[in-house]
Amino acid sequence: MRPLDSREVPLKKLLSLFTFRLPAALKDTRRLDERTRYDRMSGMIPDFVLSDSNPLVWQNRLRHPYFRTKMGEIRGRSVLEAGCGWGFLARNFADDGARVTALDPSPVTLDLARRHHRTATVPIRFVQGVAEHLPFPEASFDLVTATDMLEHVADLDACLAEFARVLKPGGRFGFVTVNRTWIARLIYITMGENVLGMLPRGTHRYDKFIPPDDLSARLRRLGLVTEEIRGILVNPLLLRYHFWLSKSIEYIGVAKK
User: Fold this and answer.
1) What pLDDT is recorded for position 195?
2) Does residue 41 belong to any structural domain of this protein?
3) d(Cα 241, Cα 52) in Å, to the nearest integer?
4) Residue of 84, 77, 221, 242 lying closest to 157 (CA atoms)
5) 67 pLDDT more than 80
6) Residue 77 in contact with residue 142, Cβ under 8 Å?
7) Residue 73 is inside which H or E element, if any?
8) Angle between helices 156-166 and 212-221 (to 10 degrees)
9) Angle between the 107-116 and 34-44 helix axes, to the nearest 10 degrees?
10) How many domains does the chain contain in total?
């Protein structure tokens, strides 16, 4: 997907984003596990999660070209998208000609993604599973991505160890996650969940947000060298994400095995 500019953002898309209201059963999910939360979202609001108003769609207009540039030629490469959700990034890579495996713990979400992306250039293999116990042999993938999922997993170190295990020598791990700062808490939890109600309460936990230096150190212990980390910032009026100097909210990066 190419980036949008201000002339291409219809008013109705902005209105649909800012006037969207969660169903009552999704407003407070603090007692639910990740799988159940996404099962409910996929089952109750499928039209919204697959629409251009879903922030994940326009986030990928930055993420996809970033990871593709870091990988060089992607056609024919093996890619794992861990925590694929509705499969937007997996679809981007499949349309590039990559051999994509998309993994997620939610069967309802996977079924929705499988039906939505059935016309991908290269068929996507959808697999139900958790990142802490990947059902793949060692050295299976040229690229593993984990976007918007590291801050949600039950065991971060186990996930990272599994990503390192299934990466080929010289392969890369691409990630997007949230920093553990007061401003990230304000945006994602206080405003996004509690005030605006754009996300179910319980979607994020502050103690699971990850400082970039901490993530780099964990990866280094597993033999993965962080090549770059860049801060990113959303412009909701243009439905775009931008690179910016600060990593205080959300950040994107790549590590090499």
Assistant:
1) 87
2) yes
3) 14
4) 221
5) yes
6) yes
7) none
8) 50
9) 40
10) 1
CA–CA separation, 55 and 72 (whole Å): 26
Please check whether residue 138 lies inside any domain of the structure. Answer: yes
Buried b (16+ CB within 10 A) or exposed e, 68-86: bebbeebeebbbbbbbbbb
Domain span at 170: 6-256
Whether 9 shows a pLDDT value over 60: the answer reads no
User: What stretch of H or E contains 126?
Assistant: strand 125-128
What pTM was estimated for this model as a whole? 0.88
Residue 109 lies in a domain: yes
Distance from the first to the final alpha carbon of the chain: 28
Residues 77 and 73: their CA atoms lie apart, in Å, by 8
Edge-first strand order for the sheet with 240-244 is: 125-128, 99-104, 78-82, 141-147, 167-178, 250-256, 225-235, 240-244
Helix (H) or strand (E) holding 86: none
Q: What's the CATH number where 193 sits?
A: 3.40.50.150
In a domain, 177, yes or no: yes
* 114-141: average pLDDT: 95
Q: What is the DSSP letter of 74?
A: -
CB atoms within 10 A of CB 144: 30
Of 141, 126, 119, 10, the C-alpha closest to 67 is 141
Give the ranges where 45-155 is alpha helix by DSSP (H). 46-49, 55-71, 88-95, 107-116
- Among the ranges given (44-48, 129-133, 229-233, 243-247), the one the predictor scored with the smallest mean pLDDT: 44-48
